[in-house]
Amino acid sequence: MEAARDGDGGPAGAASGSGDRGLDRLGTRLVIVRHGEAVCNAEEYIGGHDTCRGLTKRGVRQAEALAARLARTRELESASAFYTSLLPRAIETAEVIAPALGGARFVPTCSLCERHPGEADGLTWAEYADRFQRRSLPGDDPDTPLAPGGESWTEFVGRAADALLAAVDAHPGELVVVVAHGGIVDSSMISFLGIADHGRDVRLHPEHASLTEWQHAGAKWRLVRYSDSAHLLGEDGAGAESELRAPPPPWVVAEPRPDADAGSARRWPADPPADVPGQQA
What we know:
Blueprint: H1 21-24, E1 29-34, H2 39-42, H3 57-73, E2 81-84, H4 88-97, E3 107-108, H5 125-132, H6 153-169, E4 175-180, H7 182-192, E5 211-217, E6 220-228, H8 238-244, H9 250-253
Parallel strand pairs: 1-4, 2-3, 2-4
Antiparallel strand pairs: 1-5, 5-6
């Protein structure tokens, strides 16, 4: 599947000139597909525009499992708009699932890329923690750029939410499919559900090659499904799960309480561990 790559033909600004944005979105479905496992996920480094190396072998299998499901169920067959980020891991995932969407031509756009890392692009998360002396998990220090030349969490969530809304406004009453990143899924949850403090008090981690679906119902967003990854279970249940689904990273399952006492087993050491990843990617 050949991507439309001349410039940034994405949804940003597509809604300009629309009248009542709430009415425009009535009945519109938005499905966000997280890419399959990427090399930067497996090797725990920050994969931005300059250093993303696409999917791992498992990531390709995850995308293929999703494509097989979509071909069988035809649940996204009516998609009329198909967007992806510019990063290779998202484009490769889109290329795998495109035939199951009727061979739809996808439009890559930087507005749907993961958080821009600036000078942190290509650093391992251990190198990042050593150089910048912080872990920068989603929602932490929301107004501080990830690194010089990069985006803050606040800027990223705003940019991602605006891109999703523009895509929906451009296709009222239709099905819009976006192949992007965990951070884009997070931004939809934080913005559409109105989660306080930029999501600081929650830890979201959608599965690779999963589906998150929204429907606009008049004045409100309805969350139809979050991180739907049933296709990764395969025919033999737990056996396939152990191969296609990776366990969540430590920062998702072991976040300490701020008021934890000194003897708590869940308390971080004085210096945050260098091997804790800092973004969905």
